[in-house]
């Protein structure tokens, strides 16, 4: 009798938990509609990405019916955030933040820098398509940053590396010898690059600046740790 009561108690206690878990998964798997996107505040967008990375690093990523999402987003899209990330194969933004089809815009380029084309893409993502947040996502041990530190000269990479000059300018003698094997120095440059890239958006885009000032958009810089999967927020 006691074992039956305990079993029944577990079942009763577990039912509400299972129901809550099912509702939570259902919400995460629901594609973003224009109305849902519009009701998402900029701070909520960042919080959603934070929560997604926590799920990712704890092994609790949500499994959704991706084909169903393909069908539901075929006619329209309403992503709530835009991410500028590096092309590094270890830092796929949708996976790192546990997001799915139709959730986020992603622009990827070595060293997560921005140029006219990417800024124009971000203007589209926010002003035209309604995204509520922009995240510039750097990562540790970045090959592009290491190449910039070593002042590599190679084809079109040479022109690309010029984008890191502002971040390199933050170095001082106290940072030690400028060498790609100086891990703390490389990390400092990578973090400076993410911050400077994020802050440059309001200077280089009147559209993005106006949205930030109106409270319709939030910009943040972050760093992904390729060893743990965790994202550290710099702003």
Question: Can you tell me about this structure?
Answer:
The longest helix has 28 residues, at 2-29. The chain has helices spanning 2-29, 34-39, 42-57, 66-73, 93-96, 116-128, 143-149, 157-161, 165-168, 183-204, 206-213; strands spanning 81-85, 104-108, 133-139, 218-224, 231-233. The model is unreliable at 1-13 (pLDDT under 50). It has 235 residues and is an alpha/beta fold. Helix 10 crosses helix 11 (206-213). It has two domains: 1-30; 32-233, 3-Layer(aba) Sandwich (Beta-carbonic Anhydrase, Chain A). The chain is globular and about 50 Å long. The protein is 51% helix and 11% strand. Strand 1 (81-85), helix 5 (93-96) and strand 2 (104-108) form a beta-alpha-beta unit. The chain is built from eleven helices and five strands. A five-stranded mixed β-sheet has the order 2-1-3-4-5, with helices on both faces.
- Proportion in helices: 40-55%
Number of helices: 11
> Any idea what the radius of gyration is?
21 Å
The amount of beta strand, in percent, is: 5-15%
The level-1 CATH class of the largest domain: Alpha Beta
Instruction: Count the domains.
Output: 2
Q: Which structural class is indicated by helix and strand composition?
A: alpha/beta
Query: What is the ordering of alpha helices and beta strands?
Result: HHHHEHEHEHHHHHEE
- Major sheet, described briefly? 5 strands, mixed
**How far apart are the first and last residues' alpha carbons, in Å?**
57 Å
Please name the CATH topology of the largest domain: Beta-carbonic Anhydrase, Chain A
Which homologous superfamily in CATH is the superfamily of the largest domain? Carbonic anhydrase
Please list the strands of the largest sheet in the order they lie side by side.
2-1-3-4-5
Low-confidence stretches: 1-13
**What's the overall average pLDDT, rounded?**
92
* Topology, number of strands: 5
- What CATH architecture of the largest domain do you see? 3-Layer(aba) Sandwich
- Shape field: globular
């Amino acid at each position: 009798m006691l074992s039956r009561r305990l079993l029944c108690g577990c079942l009763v206690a577990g039912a509400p938990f299972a129901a809550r878990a099912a509702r939570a998964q259902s919400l995460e798997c629901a594609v973003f509609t224009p109305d849902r996107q519009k009701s998402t505040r900029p701070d909520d967008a960042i919080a959603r990405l934070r929560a997604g990375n926590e799920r990712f690093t704890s092994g609790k990523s949500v499994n959704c019916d991706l084909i169903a999402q393909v069908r539901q987003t075929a006619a329209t899209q309403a992503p709530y955030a835009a991410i500028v990330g590096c092309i590094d194969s270890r830092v796929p933004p949708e996976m790192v933040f546990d997001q799915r089809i139709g959730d986020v815009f992603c622009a990827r380029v070595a060293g997560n820098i921005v140029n006219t084309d990417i800024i124009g893409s971000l203007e589209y993502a926010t002003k035209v398509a309604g995204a509520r947040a922009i995240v510039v996502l750097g990562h540790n041990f970045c090959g592009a940053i290491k190449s910039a530190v070593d002042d590599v000269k190679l084809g079109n990479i040479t022109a690309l590396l010029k984008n890191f000059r502002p971040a390199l300018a933050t170095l001082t003698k106290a940072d030690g010898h400028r060498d790609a094997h100086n891990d703390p120095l490389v990390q400092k440059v990578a973090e400076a690059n993410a911050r400077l890239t994020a802050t440059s958006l309001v200077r280089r885009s009147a559209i993005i600046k106006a949205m930030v000032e109106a409270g319709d958009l939030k910009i943040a810089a972050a760093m992904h740790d390729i060893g743990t999967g965790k994202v550290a927020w710099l702003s």
